[in-house]
Amino acid sequence: MKNVFFLLVICFFSTAFSISPKLEKKIDKAIIHYFETEEFSKELITIAADQDAKVPSDFKENLFKITDTSGTLGYAYLGNAPSKTATFDYLILFDADFIVIKSKVLIYREEYGGEIGSKRWLKQFNGKSGGSEIKFPQDITPISGATISVRSMTNAINDVLQSIGTLQENNVL
Fold it and tell me: Measuring CA to CA, which residue among 94, 89, 87 is closest to residue 125?
């Protein structure tokens, strides 16, 4: 139990200055649930500014390597995308090969369109990898009343996948 607490304290302080405690708690809960471990650490992956400028997604303080005592479990990307009048925060979990294994809407700030947080709808992104291209509405099922959020989430994940693909091609990841 002390080890779990110690790891959580380290994780908190390593990211506390850029991610709110509420968001941090949601991220950790998703990682614990998906990877079925409470003993993990998140290490911020730093992308050089010149490489970050070449990709559509922002990788300043939101890409993490997730490890435990056995090694690399996967990676996590925290993003923010626009909805109709606000923004929403989302998390993409990748396996060790940067293949999407889970996506989750962490905080949705609108009255309408929250259906994009549905596990069933978000499963459409699972299995996608760096360089994959997702097109709306060809590859993604629309949701009535959430068109703007659906497009925004699709575009955001598409940008992350394109960015990861480019960084992998350039041997940055």
Answer: 94
CA distance 14 to 76: 15
Q: C-alpha 79: how far from its chain's center? A: 6
Closest CA to 24 of 37, 3, 10, 45: 10
pLDDT tens for each residue of 93-106: 999 999 999 999 99
6: pLDDT strictly greater than 50: no
pLDDT in tens, 8-66: 334 444 433 478 899 999 999 999 999 999 899 999 999 999 998 889 998 888 999 99
- φ, ψ for residue 87, nearest 5 deg: -135, 165
CB proximity list for 78: less than 8 A, separation 6 or greater: 19, 23, 27, 62, 64, 89, 90, 91, 106
Helix axes 2-15, 21-35, angle to 10 degrees: 130
The two tokens of residue 84 are: 């109709």
